[in-house]
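Usage

Read records sequentially. Each one opens with the input sequence:
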Amino acid sequence: MRRGEVYWAQLVPRSGSEQRGRRPVIVVSHDGFNQTPAWRSIIVVPISTAAVQAQRGPTAVGLAAGAGGLPKQSIAICHQVTTLDKAKLVQRIGILDSQLLNLIDNGLKAALQLP
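and closes with the structure output:
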C-alpha cells in the first residue's frame, strides 16, 4: 500500500455520522508506515458520492469520475480522516495523481488546522 492509492474498504462497524459500509478510501499515511509489515494500521480519507458533501468547504475535495480509478464523480471527505486496520482495505482501485493528492493534502491541512 502506498500513499495516494485508492482502495475499496469495509468501514464497519462505525457509529454516528462516520462514513460506513463498503466505500472507497484514499491512503494518506506515510509510506514508511504503509510498507512496514508489522504496522497494521493505515490512515485514510473516506470518499462519498453524496453531493451534499461537496458543500462542506475546503475539507471536501471533488474528484472526477475516473480519478484514481473511481467509477463515479466523488468527494474526498478530509474532515473524516481515520485510522483503519489494513485488513479492511479489500481491493485496490487505482492511485491519485500528484495534483489531486496535493488537493487532498490541502483538505487535510484545513481539517487539522495545519500550516
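Summary fields computed downstream for this record:
- Strands lie at 5-11, 21-27, 41-48, 60-63, 74-77, 82-85, 89-95.
- Helices lie at 31-34, 98-112.
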